[in-house]
Amino acid sequence: QVRPRDVKMATNLEDRAAIHDLFTRYCCALDNGEVETVTACFTADAALKSPVIDLKGTDEIRAFAGRFAARRAVGVQFRHMVTNIAVTIDGDRATATAYLLVLISGNDSHRTLPPGRYECDLVKQDETWLFTRRTVFHDHEYTLEGIGNR
Q: With contact defined as beta carbons under 8 Å apart, do 149 and 53 qualify?
């Protein structure tokens, strides 16, 4: 016999797995230059902020992903690595944090951006989790050629 608590826990695990998948899908798509996949990770009115960007809405997020794709097209490879994803779910809304490390390779060298973290708000729309706000914090300042809008 299935108890109500068991059903809630199973749903919660499914939501957590879907949110973890969203983090992975976003990072891999950004690194692979998949502009529309990146854009599809966000709601139409989502906000995306970091030390080098301050974006709002689909068009600005698409342009941002396009700048990553353009850097990749000229031989610059980004690798966004995310760990320690912590999720709090409240119905069709959630918050999530994660540690972030970004490696950048190109021109026979590589560098690492300062370690950081994501802080995110999410919403479940049509059974799909999406970012409504994604803020990136890094441990200290850095520059990132060809990506920022600030």
A: yes
Furthest-apart CA pair in the chain: how many Å?
Answer: 61
The number of CA neighbours under 13 Å toward the Cβ of 84 is 9
**0.70 cut: is pTM over it?**
yes
Number of Cα atoms under 13 Å in the Cβ half of residue 16: 11
* Interatomic CA distance for residues 118 and 139, integer angstroms: 12
Q: For residue range 89-110, what is the model confidence (pLDDT) as tens digits?
A: 999 999 999 999 999 999 899 9
Other Cβ atoms less than 10 A from the Cβ of 16: the count is 16
The single-letter code of the amino acid at 11 is: T
Token digits for 62? 């698409």
Q: CA 22 to CA 87: how far, in whole Å?
A: 12
Angle among Cα 130, 99, 60 to the nearest 5 degrees reads: 40
Give, as one character, the DSSP assignment of residue 92.
T
CA distance 79 to 49: 19
